[in-house]
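This part of the workshop introduces the protein records we will be handling. An example says more than a description, so a record of this kind follows:
>
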Amino acid sequence: MLERGLVPDFSPAAIAEANALEGPALEVGPSVRDLRGLPWASIDNDDSRDLDQLTVAEPLPSGDVKVLVAIADVTAAVEIGSAIDSHARTNTTSVYTAAQVFPMLPERLSTDLTSLGEGEERLAMVMEIIVAKDGRVTGSDVYPALVLNRAKLAYDGVAAWLDGAAPPPGLSRVAGLDDQLRIQDRVAQAMRSLRHVHGALRLQTLEARPVFEGDELADLRPEEPNRAKELIEDFMIAANGATVKYLEAKGFASLRRVLHSPERWDRIRALAAALGKQLPPEPSSQALEEFLAERRLADPAGFPDLSLSELPGRRGDDHFGLAVRDYAHSTAPNRRYPDLATQRLLKAAMAGGPPPYRNEELVELARHCTEQEDNATKVERRVRKSAAAMLLASRIGEGFDGLVTGAGPKGTWVRIFRPPVEGKLMEGSEGLDVGDRIRVTLVRADVQRGFVDFARSGGQPPPGNPRPS
């Protein structure tokens, strides 16, 4: 982290500020709505404690549905220029490694005073979104409110229940919450279907989560998509869109998130052509989504492998993968600094005051956040590679099926599937390109440096030929 310009530990001043807070900010002014009576619930990872959002939905007589997304009010506890703010602005994000989580905010805030924990009354910024039957957002608003989380639910439990399994305990304890979540699921699926019509991509990557037995790393297991994750993702997309519209209406600038369009569209076209699909000469998310939808049906087992070959990589001015342009940073202020800054912009816009950041400052802040998020990703990847090397250290000489995920002047990279680990192909890379399936042999696992090296099966493994530092 230090090598990447990230600060692992909070300063004594930041710790002192966190300890001095007497409790959650609950000062309720005339503009703050009391929405504690609604059946709010959070859905997140099983072990998440830094809860940023709650959701609730209300069917309207017109047939539309009013969706409310409550985002934790973090700015009430973190002042601009404070020691806590300085640390958050330096790192710009929480860093989630297989070894340890390094939160952007002190845990007394992120997992307690500014977290929307179950049974806790908290201030929040609420994005109100009106959704038509076909998934179109027909109206939106943003306002402060007092909320109360009725149930802390987990993605896997909710998804299994939506697919017909028994309800998770938190769901059963709250009367009417089952109907509430079914309404939310129906609305989210309609919104998602509409976005796919407009070219949103159904990519399925093989991100892995560490699994521990006590203090020992036992496995790396791939994250699986499910309907509960999709529900939250679609509502967060809509909430970020509502934020942009609100700030634009008030004449305020906003921080936007972009996803690059594919850097090697020619290679994607070649992969599609080999499977009988002709893609247009220029990058098109709609055409790519049609192709991916066909392949998901034709080869569901191989779909994650194909997704790895289609990942975007060139800068654009919108979100290529989501097929949206109005995608702000506003839904995770406990974990990401752009979201915290956006919350300050929203509050200033509501109060009719000047923006808390000059436009020039926002440009610089956006650049810094982009760089630090990239640095955090590299740290997380480095630790994940060390974890992978630790798991594979006793399996030198074994063979694995793999997929080429990168090919260029710096080398060729291969991902194996069980466990889902990526490593460098040290020998036998001639003629390979992204998307090729090959058989590889594990030749080295360096835990300290996070190196996992393969040789193409059938060639001579290169023992004693260490990778350059």
User: Anything to note?
Assistant: The chain has twelve helices and 16 strands.
